Amino acid sequence: MTMVDDFKFLEKNGFKLLPYALARSEDEAIKHAKKIGYPLVMKVVSPEITHKTDVGGVIVGIKNKAALSAAYNEIMENAKGKKVGGILVQKKARKGIELIIGGKKDVQFGYTVVLGLGGIYVEVFRDISARICPVGKSDVKEMVMELKSHPILLGMRGKKAIHMKSLEKLVLNVCKFMQKHDIAELDLNPVVFNERGCDIIDVRFKRSK
Amino acid sequence: MREQVKNLKYIFRPKSVAIIGASGTPTKVGAVVLKNLIEGNFGGDIYPINPKYEELVGKKCYPSVLAVKKRIDCAIIATPAKFVPKILEQCGKKKIKGVVVLSGGFSEVGNTELENKLKKTADKYKMAVIGPNCLGILNPYHRVDSIFLPMYKLKRPRPGGISFVTQSGATGTCVVDLAAQFGVGVSKFISYGNGTVINEIDLLEFLEKDRKTEEILLYLEGTKDGKKLLETMKRVNRKKPIVVLKAGKGERAAQAAFSHTGNLAGNYLSYEAAFRQSKVVVADSLDELFEFVKIFNQALPKGNRIGVVTNGGGLGVLTTDVIENKKLALAEFSKETTKELKKILPPYANAENPLDVIADAGSELYKKSLDILKRSPEVDILAVIVLFQAPAIDERILNILVNLSDEKKKPVVVIAVGGEYTEGHRKILEGYGVPTYSSPSDAIKAVKKLVDYAHFTRKTR
User: Fold this and answer.
1) Sign of the torsion angle spanned by Cα atoms A176, A180, A182, A187
2) B170 contacts chain A (CB < 8 A)
3) Residue at which a domain ends, from B194, B213, B232
4) A122, A126, A129, A132, best to mutate vs chain B, most B CBs in 10 Å
5) Which domains are seen in chain A, by residue range?
6) Tens digits of per-residue pLDDT, B361-395?
7) How many percent of chain A have pLDDT more than 90?
8) Per the CB < 8 Å rule, is B260 touching A189?
9) How far is B269 from chain A (nearest CA, A)?
10) Rounded-to-10 torsion of CA B340, B343, B347, B353
């Protein structure tokens, strides 16, 4: 499955993703951009590339048509020699706190849902909390409080608390999704949260065999 | 409850016990178990079984359980593994409902087939079987004891309200020994080994209904049915606190996991999640297991406000530090409490929390202060620091603390820091069920667990 198929599958299952479209040419990219609106992010779609950032397959903060054209060509150049299915044009996420929400099927306990502080230091801090599915809203509240970084999520130094209802909905939906489709592993990472809601930037999942 | 689980009562409260593989060689398991049952004053009939002997320690020895005319409630098997299925079949025919298989040499060494045979026979006759590969059980109330370790090497604890469920025999041994040492009262001890017929979930269900069990200690290495364990822990913990220690936390997820989540979520994370969801009390070490377990014989606090009484200022400050660190509260004495305290305190002492009754305070001043604080509605928990080293403190303080703890109105913890002399007093207090700690941090950590548990039960009741 390609990234676009994954995105579509998640949307069908009640996950709201940032507006996106697949462009197979520069012209198509420009058309999509007009519809979605700037600023944008572009990502290469290729079955042969797992770490898109490492090969220069992701360009962020595209503010206008000129930048869009340049980014399109740059990504195509960087992906030369690889099978490319197109370039994903996606609305840039709002500013906020990056969280990771994931799931894993455990041998003993079945589907588990994990919430953690996201971003590039996720493996360093391992600030995570987990629950066995199914979970309720009170579980999500407890998961938040178990994070060392919970004061950041609850708002500090003049920043407002994140939109808790969106988080609850997302965590509950992860459980539902995993159970329905027998998912072995799932990442919504990162998901950017602010006081108004959340934007899911990237997803990755694998069904059980 | 499954019939097999119900039949555990024949193991814990048998009127008669057969020891299969009883022996005259003192170092053999079958010899130690027989000796322990006799010397432990087991009240029922004892039948040694071994075709090689006519008589053992003055008791008639039978070639098999089938040769015994009278009814047998419980059999303890201590023979080589290969004979176990056949012996179990005989137990079934003899209508023995409870069996403890001490023998090792089953699935733990790859001999799964033999273990399957054991299970089949147990299921066929609806026998409750503990083990194989275990230490078995101990019920101090009924003086039944299958632990095959000599009494002079391993002390047995007094009867009490704590039941201990352990997968590991080695850990079980240490816990039994320490429980005896610390004066912790035990209701049932069960080392369930491979858990082939009766596993930790069955035991939790049994102990849930067991009248003598007020609190459960669970030492876990793994489980075969996480979902059921979670469900059972959730239900039982609401009625009786479960303190759990999980071994094997280091087990990390494979680094080649597909996702970040896969990478982050090692095996222990799921257990941790299940513990959090069921609100059981999690201990991170054997030390903590004991530190936590002993506080749960106290009344549950109504809040998190601690009143501290001390005869040493510094320890009061140290205790306050931990209270703050653990997000508990130092009680603010009301005007009334302060007024009452001023009446009894010497003029140079301050009626503040921590209440420093000053080094030359005798036991009597402790009593008066505690009498006031135990009635003060703004104090939920009493933490009593006693410097036994102070010259004015005498034995009377022990009585005061034991009585206060026995009232079971507000939880009491005692903090006594010091060497040999203090240690002696700590032990006496613990023997009477007063949770006593050798440092402020150990004490307050345990208080925190009690407060959290109380908070949870208040929400669910």
Assistant:
1) negative
2) no
3) B213
4) A132
5) 19-91 (3.30.1490.20), 97-207 (3.30.470.20)
6) 789 999 999 999 999 999 999 999 999 998 888 88
7) 75
8) yes
9) 7
10) -20
Residue B1's alpha-carbon distances to A68, A173, B9, B108, in angstroms, are 67, 34, 13, 28
B49 and B167 belong to one structural domain: yes
Query: One-letter amino acid identity for A76?
Result: M
Name the band, by pLDDT with cuts 50, 70 and 90, for residue B264: low
Q: A133 CB near a chain B CB, below 8 Å?
A: no
Q: For residues B384 and B411, is the Cβ–Cβ distance under 8 A?
A: no
Residue type at position B277: Q
Inside any domain, residue B69:
yes
Q: How far is CA B288 from CA B96, B121, B246, B444, in A?
A: 39, 40, 12, 12
Contacts of A114 in chain B (CB under 8 A): 261, 264-265, 269
Q: Are B117 and B187 in contact (CB under 8 A)?
A: no
DSSP string, B253-319: PPTT-SSHHHHH--HHHHHHHHHHHHTPEEESSHHHHHHHHGGGGSPPPSSSEEEEEES-HHHHHHH
The DSSP result for A84-119, as a single string, is: --EEEEEEPPPSSEEEEEEEEEETTTEEEEEEEE-S
Chain mean pLDDT for chain B: 93
Q: Which DSSP category does B96 fall into?
A: -
CB contacts of A129 in chain B (<8 Å) are: 273, 276
For residue A101, the distance in angstroms to the closest alpha carbon of chain B comes to 8
Check CB contact of A130 with chain B, cutoff 8 Å. yes
State the average pLDDT over residues A127-155: 94
Confidence of residue B255 (pLDDT cuts 50, 70, 90): very low
Is residue B461 pLDDT above 70, yes or no? no
Rounded alpha-carbon distances, angstroms, from residue B38 to B30, B48, B56: 13, 11, 11
Question: At B123, which CATH number?
Answer: 3.40.50.720
Grade residue B460 by pLDDT with cuts at 50, 70 and 90.
confident
Q: Determine, yes or no, domain membership for B261.
A: no
Structural domain boundaries enclosing B188:
3-213
Q: What is the pLDDT of residues B127-136, one digit of tens each?
A: 999 999 999 9
Please tell me the predicted confidence (pLDDT) of residue B352. Answer: 94
Per-residue pLDDT at B254 exceeds 50: no
Q: Does A187 touch chain B (CB under 8 A)?
A: yes
Residues in chain B within 8 Å Cβ distance of A139: 277
pLDDT per residue as tens digits for the range B42-63: 999 999 999 999 999 999 999 9
Cβ–Cβ contact B211 with A under 8 A: no
Residue A81: pLDDT band by 50, 70, 90 thresholds? confident
Please say which residue of B196, B213, B230 terminates a domain.
B213
CB-based contact, B274 to chain A, within 8 Å: yes
Model confidence, pTM? 0.90
* Residues B304 and B205 occupy one common structural domain: no
Mean pLDDT, residues B114-137? 96
The residues facing B60 across adjacent strands are B55
Each residue of B435-454: b (16+ CB within 10 Å) or e?
bbbebbbbbbbbbbbbbebb
Q: B277 vs A206: CB contact, 8 Å cut-off?
A: no
Go through chain B and tell me how many residues it has.
Answer: 461
Terminal-to-terminal C-alpha distance of chain A = 15
